[in-house]
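[step 3/7] fold_predict: job queued, chain A
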Amino acid sequence: MWNVAYLPEAADERADLPARDRVAVDNAVAKLEAMGPALPYPHSSNVEGWNDLRELRPQAGKSPWRPLYRKVGDRFVIAAVGPEAKKDKRGFDKTCERAIDRLTKLEEDSAEQENELKPEETETQNKAISGNAENDETEAEGSN
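[step 4/7] structure written:
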């Protein structure tokens, strides 16, 4: 089973869909969870003109809505939900822009968190090493 997560804004966009369309989106997400990157067309496809962005195609492409996603780390992140391109090209392009902006922010925030953790880990490791060195010195003094 693959891990699929909605960004909060995308979850809100999904919640605003009519009930029938929301069910179709949920079914498409369940397929992504089950098959991951092996999910074939017409259920998933690359978004033309947008680097490293994919779309789920609910109801094998017959739904007017498209969840847009990317693999980030070990999970698929749904970054936006918007109209299908043939029905509303302008709306679809805006949804793509929102998705890319949100994914970029997510990736930047993740990188910052990693960088913030590294100094702490190093300090903790240094303390552990210093503590062990002090113990070794104390043991050496005690044996003399």
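[step 5/7] annotate
The CA atoms of residues 10 and 80 lie 4 Å apart.
The domain at 3-136 is CATH 3.30.2310.20 (YaeB-like fold).
exit 0
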